[in-house]
Amino acid sequence: MKRAKPQGHNAPLSALFQFYPLINLECMKPLIKILAVALIVSFFPACESNLELEPYTALDASTGFKTKSDIEAALLGAYNAVQNSNYYGLQMQVLPDLYSDILSHTGTFPTYAQVFNRQILADNSNIQGTWNTLYVAINRANNVIASAPGIQDASFNAANTVGEARLLRAYHYFNLLILFGGSPAGFNQSGGLGVPIFTAPTLSADDAAPKARSTEAEVWTQIMSDMDFAVANLSASNGNGRANKNVALGLKARMHLYRNEWAQAEAAASEVIASGKYTMMTTQTYPNIWLSQNSSEAIWELQFDINNTNSIAFWYLPTSSGGRNEFTSTASLKSAHEPGDVRLAVNVTTAPANKTLKYTRVNGTDNVILLRLAEMYLIRAEARARQNNVSGAVADLNVVRKRAGIAEVALDNANAIVDAVIQERRVELAHEGHRWFDLRRIGKWNATGLTEDFRSRWPIPQREVQTAGTTIAQNPGY
Amino acid sequence: MSADLNLVNENYFTYRKSFGGLNFDALVGNSFQTSTYESFFGQGENYPGKTIRELNAASVKKNVTSSKTAWGLNSYFSRFNFNYKSKYFLSASVRADGSSRFGANNRWGVFPAISAAYRISEDFFKNSTVISELKLKASYGLRGNQDIGNFASRALIEPGTNYLQRAGLAPSQLGNPNLTWEEREDIDLGLEIGLFDDKLSLNIDAYQGTTNELLLSRPLVGASGFTGIQENIGSIQNKGIDISLTTTNIASSKVTWTTTANISFFKNKILKLAGTPFAAGFASWVEEGQALGAFRGYKVVKIFQAQSEIDALNQKARELTGSASAVYQSTLTRPGDIMFEDINNDGRITSDDQKILGDANPDFYGGVINNIQAYGFDLSFFFQFSIGNYVFNNTRAFSEGMNSVFGQAATVRDRWTTTNTDTDIPRAVFGDPNNNRRVSDRFLEDASYVRLKNISLGYNIPKGIVKKAGLTNARVYVTGQNLLTFTNYSGFDPEVSTFGETNTSAGTDFLTFPQPRTVLFGINLGF
Q1: Cβ distance of B164 and A239 shorter than 8 Å
Q2: Do B32 and A23 touch (CB under 8 A)?
Q3: Are residues A247 and A211 both part of a single domain?
Q4: Are residues A251 and A386 in the same domain?
Q5: Are A237 and A354 in contact (CB under 8 A)?
Q6: Taking a C-beta distance cutoff of 8 angstroms, is the pair B396, B408 a contact?
């Protein structure tokens, strides 16, 4: 509602001017008294109060991010970027799952059809949206990181705040790398391609000038320096909706796995498992990881609520359930389940047919699990197998299998265990956006029928390449 | 609920003087303007009946938001008009405008204009029976444009990026303290000729309009965290000639017939663009040296008829790239798919194989109006035409895309099949793996047209009859608009544009509502 006004329709003109100082009496009086003088006078002393307006619905940037509460709001804004539909609010799961063998495209959008057919054009608007949003997220984190040290407030925990922002930044660069960088053989290989690195906030047009792509190794260096800071500085608990020390360790375990650094991956996963803060849900309660949300297994769970929603269930569900039926679980995902696997009912539902229990709330309040304990066991199982710790690997693998209600395996060959873990990851982490990156990191991008190796990396958005002039090189082949 | 408050305080003097054939008038003034817009939205449900309509009675309060914005404009202006014996004319004006929308360093713009005319006929053809009017005129002027968002020059941090039901803040816009007025510079040269007591009059105007300091969002690399910044990024030039001919064909006491025909030729070109070329709309492309309104995309060569054609191209792709897995277009290309042109001859279709395909600007356009009055009847009709303008018909990307399961246009019945090979519509295949639907000249159409824009026929009932009925006048008429259109354009209306006034993506049709064909019957009665 408008603020109360002192004058009604018949109020004297002067009352109006007092209330709206934009046309003020300093300007008016001489005009009323002596028009001629006023005209001459008003040419000289520019009466510009009505030109110096401040925005009402936003802050001028020069006034922002100066206090503890500003920084806290900026950090929440940085988490909010992760919830965007171009990121973990939809695309970061469904695009890789379409590109691998988790999801079929049953909808109408050509941009999704391109991903499902593995024929992505460089001007695909979904890919462009994801690239841009990841960098918006990075800029938000950069603002927190740059502004936090300037806060003079004894109650402000700068180390924890910067730790959260640096973890987010590392997470974004990691996701950029696995989408657009690396090499067909996987990650942390020589000659791997990287992405442009921005570590300072963009405050002006000059800051926004294009930067060339760094090498994959340079991006990893940046990621790992942020992760080490996060592990060293994050609090043990910030709630499971935000980053904390275990989130940092868990993410680090994932990153080391992608880098084929088995011992470090095992160590980081072990630390999370040994923290004792998380317990696996049971065979019976497995669906409640999603249906009840915030389970004992969740390490990092992106929190949505009725005022802050996502559209994931809407894109999955059939029209009869209020959705648009864009994505459907593949037949091969269904047949990847062993008999008796309780995960089948979660990954490939029967009513509605071939959807998932991981995203069911058409009102948009499904949480998105970014990190959970089962992944830690699977990371450690693979890392141990790669180091020929066969019994340790099998034990971890069986934690997940036993919970799923299927027979424990008794493998004694490390390679066979790795294969079994990759298969287990497909089923355990279906619809969570892992499968394509698992295939990529082990160099098996062709497992889903892809023949052209350049398509293991997605195209840098055409808009980005064109806007950068010659500064940003397109991935070869596009 | 919204309130729009616009306060204007305008003051000016005028001065007029005539002596010895010299007429002079002058004006000086200033104005201060402030416009404030506020809105409030509240939503509540479950009321106790329908009588109380205020939100206080809603038992479920659903949604509430409010907004406010404002702009200010201060202007100082003056104008001088001068003529001598209605033979020599001179007028000049200058104004200075300051707008709150621009950067603190550059709020003010100064815009002068001058025009002059000389009626040659007053000096040389005073007694001519042939030449009744000959006037030469010239003008130069600068105009300012401030058509941008109210706080477009400011670096902003916006609320609303919330998490965990707590308020978040995030940078939303980069600032540009140097943002200033867009300027349009017009130079016109005109000739007015009247012959035979103005029975035939011809106007010829040549113009060059250059828009400098163009106000547009300059694209930034997404890696910066922003996709654009409001800047004065370039200049665009329009050059052209307008010719208008009015003839009085018949002018008797019972019958008059006049015809006005006009035609315009123009070229536009982006002279300068700070930053790199960028895409707009669906297929539009903004690039230095090109016309504003250019389209860019892939180019269709043909429809593949046999797998052997595809295999041969794939083989060539392997030879040219040295990669054993290389293919020309897609691994899933099959007969019935479109072959796109390999513009850079690297053996493969990549994002580099796109080029300018045409533009939305006509080569020429104009109209012809005829007005005929005879024995109480009056007839007027107006034909309008535009030749050489292209439209990107994005509606067809959907209605002929055949990429998924939804309604398609009847034209897809003629799609390629093994038994229907002589067609330019590709095969139907779920998911369109060859990306036949990509932005290409497949959906670009010549939208030249001639249209009977308006026709009107009326009859004034004779005064004698009207008076008996106690009326002063009576007229019956029928008018029709858009009754006839001659065009090869396949969409509903060649004259429309989805993006309205957005000049970076002109000539785009996407489910645009066509202009209606209307027929109006009317009776005017005067009492």
Answers
A1: yes
A2: yes
A3: yes
A4: no
A5: no
A6: no
pLDDT at A45: 41
For residue A154, tell me if it sits in a domain: yes
How many angstroms separate the CA atoms of A189 and B518, rounded?
69
Task: Report the alpha-carbon angle A469-A470-A471, nearest 5.
Answer: 95
pLDDT in tens, B331-384: 999 999 999 999 999 999 999 999 999 999 999 999 999 999 999 999 999 999
Calculate how close chain B gets to A202, using CA atoms only, in Å: 6
Same domain, A169 and A245: yes
| Residue of A42, A51, A109 lying closest to B99 (CB–CB) | A51
**Token duo for residue B217:** 């969002």
Predicted complex ipTM exceeds 0.95: no
Residue A299, domain CATH: 1.25.40.390
Could you tell me how many residues make up chain A? 478
Q: How many angstroms separate the CA atoms of A110 and A87, rounded? A: 19
For chain B, give the number of residues: 527
What HEC string does B176-217 produce? CCCCCCEEEEEEEEEEEEEECCCCEEEEEEEEEEEEECCEEE
pLDDT at A386: 98
Closest by Cβ to B224, choosing from A20, A109, A202:
A202
Distance from CA of A239 to the nearest CA of B (A): 10
Domain boundaries, chain B: 1-85, 299-353+402-436
Please name which of A293, A286, A425, A426 lies closest in space to residue A359, comparing C-alpha atoms: A293
The tokens describing B9, both together, are 């305080």
Residues 6 or more apart in contact with residue B168 via CB below 8 angstroms? A73, A74, A75, A76, A77, A78, A79, A80, B159, B160, B161, B162
CB atoms within 10 A of CB A357: 18
**Whole-number Å distance between alpha carbons of A155 and A49:** 39
Q: What number is the average pLDDT over the span A67-87? A: 97
- Is the preceding peptide bond at A352 cis, omega within 30 degrees of 0? yes
Contacts of B426 (CB under 8 A, 6+ apart): B303, B336, B337, B338, B402, B415, B416, B434, B436
| Structural domain boundaries enclosing A28 | 24-51
Partner residues linked to B228 by β-bridges: B219
Q: If DSSP codes are grouped into helix, strand and coil, which group holds residue A168?
A: helix
Q: What is the percent of chain A with per-residue pLDDT over 90, rounded to a whole number?
A: 88
Does a structural domain hold residue A453? Answer: no
| CB contact at 8 A, B60 and B46 | yes
Q: In chain A, what residues touch B220 (CB-CB under 8 Å)? A: 205, 208, 467
Residues of A253-262 as b/e, b for ≥16 C-beta within 10 angstroms?
bbbbbbbebb
Q: Do B220 and A205 touch (CB under 8 A)?
A: yes
Q: Which residues contact A2 (CB under 8 A, 6 or more apart)?
A: B3, B38, B40
Asked if A151 and A225 sit in the same domain, the reply is yes
Contact A80 B168 (CB under 8 A): yes
Backbone torsions φ then ψ of B145, nearest 5 degrees? -135, 130
Distance CA B37, CA B34 (A): 10
DSSP labels for A165-203? Answer: HHHHHHHHHHHHHHHH-BBTTBSS-TT-B------S---
Q: B14 and B27 in contact (C-beta within 8 Å)?
A: yes
Which residues is B404 bridged to in the sheet?
none
Among residues B242, B164, B332, B153, the alpha carbon closest in space to that of A451 is found at B332
- Whether residue A332 sits in one domain with residue A257: no
Task: Answer whether residue A57 is part of any domain.
Answer: no
Strands B508-509, B390-393: pairing kind: parallel
Bridge-partner residues for B266, per DSSP? B240
A189 in any annotated domain: yes
B11 with A35: Cβ contact below 8 A = yes
Is the same domain home to A224 and A352?
Answer: no
Q: Are residues A270 and A287 in the same domain?
A: no
Rounded to whole angstroms, how far apart are CA atoms B246 and B242? 13
Model pLDDT for residues B9-54, shown as the tens digit of each residue: 999 999 999 988 899 999 999 999 999 999 999 999 999 999 998 9
